[in-house]
């Protein structure tokens, strides 16, 4: 069976986000440690450390933003250095629903997102 849908050019991905997930003060401390180490090693932007669920994210989180060209360096590093954190990685194409549902990968356990923040299909 062949798929006749058009293929999308990967150059459409202009950035990636890696969301560090945690649930308590100990997890927050670990997220700060991982984010700081990543920022020292890579050209990334570290977002705020939320102590409540924000947007579609079901747990406390911090967003790491980085250029698409850094994916092959940042994501393997996170896979090996995330400690006990779960990490939600997604593409950045400008289509938030797609980016958070189709262009995703998990390091550690996966969690159900609250997709209602993106409105109806």
From TrEMBL:
Domain of life: Bacteria
Keyword tags: Dioxygenase, Oxidoreductase
Molecular function terms from GO: dioxygenase activity
EC number: 1.14.99.-
InterPro entries for this protein: DOPA-like_sf, DOPA_dioxygen
Stated name of the protein: DOPA 4,5-dioxygenase
